[in-house]
């Protein structure tokens, strides 16, 4: 059926309301995790992944097989992804604002010092520097894979893509190891709260970006992309570079300057 416009009017979909309810359950289950009750977290996380898969399946079907994504629609999708990344950027700016407010003028309850008395500083030349190298290298490899795809060099494309995924996963493991080795927790003054909020939310975005890249990798393995339309891959690269930039600010201000 032909339309008299270039835009895609989406069909009715159950996924937005189901995703909203699943994210609500995921947030409530994270509260239960504080009391070491993990079942509902993994249960809710599984449903979030399931809805992600089915929602993206419908979007892929519309763009790749039904031809609903015209050039005008692709342009609006790019603007939508850009606005999403900007909103995520301001999300982190709010927590950096909190960090600078507390660290530049520490109260007397903190001993007028930052970090507060009793909390050992983290050596930024140790695990944080190693994690920085892993994440920046991962960003380099995903850019290399995109360049290889542009030149139709599929061997280098898959090689660099796999290295990107390995380094991204290794970054997450090293971050968990750092949490295990720290001598302070979330409740140790505002310093502990700010530290775990900033690094924890960044780690959450790393997980989201990793699954975004992994999903597109399996799409490439199944020949599920068109050389005329691989916006999903481009968007995953944009998001991964956003995660890189946020980590650079975390390393510079939270680990190096803030310690």
TrEMBL record:
Q: Looking at the record's lineage, which domain of life comes first?
A: Eukaryota
GO BP terms: namely: mitochondrial electron transport, cytochrome c to oxygen
| Single GO molecular function | cytochrome-c oxidase activity
Q: How does it sit in the membrane?
A: Multi-pass membrane protein
Where does the protein end up? Answer: Membrane
N-terminal signal peptide: none
List all membrane-crossing ranges.
37-56, 77-102, 122-144, 156-174, 194-218, 238-257
Write out the GO cellular component annotations.
Answer: membrane; mitochondrion
Q: Which UniProt keywords apply?
A: Membrane, Mitochondrion, Translocase, Transmembrane, Transmembrane helix
The residue ranges of the Heme-copper oxidase subunit III family profile domain are 3-259
Function noted in UniProt: Component of the cytochrome c oxidase, the last enzyme in the mitochondrial electron transport chain which drives oxidative phosphorylation. The respiratory chain contains 3 multisubunit complexes succinate dehydrogenase (complex II, CII), ubiquinol-cytochrome c oxidoreductase (cytochrome b-c1 complex, complex III, CIII) and cytochrome c oxidase (complex IV, CIV), that cooperate to transfer electrons derived from NADH and succinate to molecular oxygen, creating an electrochemical gradient over the inner membrane that drives transmembrane transport and the ATP synthase.
Q: Which family does it belong to?
A: Belongs to the cytochrome c oxidase subunit 3 family.
Entry protein name: Cytochrome c oxidase subunit 3
């Amino acid at each position: 059926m032909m339309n008299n416009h270039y835009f895609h009017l989406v069909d009715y979909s159950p996924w937005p309301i189901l995703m909203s309810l699943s994210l609500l359950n995921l947030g409530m289950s994270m509260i239960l995790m504080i009391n070491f009750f993990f079942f509902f977290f993994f249960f809710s996380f599984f449903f979030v992944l399931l809805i992600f898969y089915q929602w993206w399946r419908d979007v892929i079907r519309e763009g790749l097989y039904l031809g609903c994504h015209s050039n005008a629609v692709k342009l609006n999708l790019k603007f939508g992804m850009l606005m999403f990344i900007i909103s995520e950027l301001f999300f982190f700016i709010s927590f950096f604002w909190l960090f600078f407010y507390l660290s530049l003028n520490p109260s007397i309850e903190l001993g007028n010092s930052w970090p507060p008395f009793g909390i050992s500083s983290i050596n930024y030349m140790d695990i944080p520097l190693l994690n920085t190298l892993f994440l920046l290298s991962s960003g380099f490899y995903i850019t290399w894979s995109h360049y290889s795809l542009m030149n139709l060099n599929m061997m280098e494309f898959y090689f660099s893509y796999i290295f990107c995924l390995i380094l991204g996963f290794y970054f997450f493991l090293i971050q968990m190891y750092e949490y295990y080795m720290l001598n302070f927790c979330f409740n140790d003054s505002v310093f502990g709260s700010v530290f775990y909020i900033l690094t924890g939310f960044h780690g959450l975005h790393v997980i989201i970006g990793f699954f975004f890249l992994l999903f597109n990798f399996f799409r490439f393995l199944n020949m599920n992309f068109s050389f005329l339309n691989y916006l999903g891959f481009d968007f995953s690269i944009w998001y991964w570079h956003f995660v890189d930039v946020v980590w650079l600010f975390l390393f510079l201000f939270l680990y190096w300057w803030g310690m």
